[in-house]
Write a structure and sequence with these properties.
Aspartate Aminotransferase, domain 1, Aspartate Aminotransferase, domain 2, 2 domains, four-stranded mixed β-sheet
């Protein structure tokens, strides 16, 4: 079937929740993908921070093939080896004692909200049910996670959402203090606001939030759906800031391309989730866990890939800042951590994204639409970055 026909039929048959670009992607290898016509693209979006090892990494493909031939699905009524192995590696390399597996980031955040609420009600008071979140945050599309997402554009048409949520500005410690009362259950934060515009925390912000949670006896939930699995130059972003959360959520990069999410927490908090309090039919599926195991094994192997991410981040940021100096009337700021990078423009970024795609570079947008988002695979090298910068330079010159 030809490209135009695939696009036409898709538009007629699929619920129109996406503004898709007019290309049909057919295959991928490493940091590159090819469309149905054979055109090659350098992928610096990586499935929106999902493909941390690039497309079709050999170790992940082999792990999935092997598991599919052995056992695909049995539900959580039974134990499976891949799920146990994945739990062990996550616990060994994090603050956590316990893990719950699900299928996506929004599910992980839904579960984290439920866990926080049931724990605080059982530990302190049935009135401890309110959440504090931040403006410009993004935590998912289901009702609970949408309710703690601090962007009205995602709320429109779905009100009323959960009423027990207070929003405060990101990086404003005093606003958090002012929002806390005797009903506060937990604070939910992204260590770096990704979809909200690649907004980084100010110095000691997360430390101060952690101190507030300790003194007020409320929980700190860190949404590391986009920042986790090496994306920021550490396995988890909280490691940069000298703190530990009470609950952490993961997804995106965890499965290396296969859908999986996870909630990580401490033993005492985990006990609040007993039988029948929470569940997921597909959560911790043997195939997804095998893919995640292969992904984590690769990311953690000798620490090479995480160190490589840090080196490539410095190189990429340096090159992007050269473009900023070259086009000061067009580029306002370059910011990010690891390979989660935003370039804020002085105008709407969507036309830059489209022009880059035409020239063979896939990138995205974030925030209010003026921020270019770069979330390339962690395996990129200097040649890939140079090629991306060359394309960006041409596009900005023509813009």
């Amino acid at each position: 079937m030809e490209e135009k026909e695939i696009i036409k039929q898709s538009e007629n048959l699929l619920i129109p929740t996406y503004s898709r670009y007019p290309i049909v992607l057919r295959k991928g290898r490493g940091v590159r993908v090819w469309d149905i016509n054979g055109k090659e693209y350098l992928d610096f979006l990586a499935g929106i921070a999902v493909n941390v090892l690039g497309h079709c990494p050999r170790k992940v493909v082999m792990a999935v093939q092997k598991q599919v031939q052995r056992l695909v699905h049995v539900s959580n009524l039974y134990y499976t080896e891949p799920q146990l192995a994945l739990a062990k590696i996550l616990i060994k390399n994090s603050f956590a004692d316990r893990v719950f597996f699900c299928n996506s980031g929004t599910e992980a955040n839904e579960g984290a909200l439920k866990l926080a609420r049931i724990y605080m009600k059982s530990k302190f008071s049935i009135d401890r049910y309110e959440f504090i979140s931040t403006y410009n945050s993004f935590h998912g599309r289901t009702f609970g996670s949408l309710s703690v997402t601090g962007q009205e554009k995602y709320h429109h048409g779905f009100e009323p959402l959960l009423e027990s949520v207070k929003f405060v500005p990101f990086n404003d410690v005093q606003a958090i203090k002012d929002a806390i009362n005797d009903k506060t259950c937990a604070i939910i934060l992204e260590p770096i606001q990704a979809e909200g515009g690649i907004n980084l925390p100010e110095r000691d912000y997360l430390k101060k939030v952690r101190e507030i949670c300790n003194s007020e006896r409320i929980l700190l939930i860190l949404d590391e759906v986009q920042t986790g699995i090496g994306r920021t130059g550490k396995l988890f972003a909280y490691e940069h800031f000298g703190i530990e959360p009470d609950i952490m959520t993961l997804a995106k990069g965890l499965g290396g391309g296969i859908p999986i999410g996870a909630i990580l927490t401490k033993e005492e908090i985990a006990k609040a989730f007993g039988p029948k309090t929470h569940a997921s039919t597909f959560g911790g599926n043997p195939v997804a866990c095998s893919s995640a195991l292969a992904t984590l094994d690769t990311v953690l192997e000798d620490g090479y890939l995480i160190d490589h991410c840090q080196r490539m981040s410095k190189y990429f940021m340096k090159k992007l800042n050269f473009l900023k100096d070259k086009y000061p009337e067009k580029i306002k700021e370059v910011r990010g951590l690891g390979l989660l990078i935003g370039v804020e423009l002085t105008f709407d970024a969507i036309e830059i994204v489209k022009k880059c795609m035409e020239k063979g570079l896939l990138i995205g947008t974030a925030g209010d639409g003026s921020v270019l988002r770069f979330t390339p695979p962690l395996i990129i090298d200097k040649d890939d970055i140079d090629e991306a910068i060359s394309i960006l330079d041409k596009v900005f010159r023509e813009a």
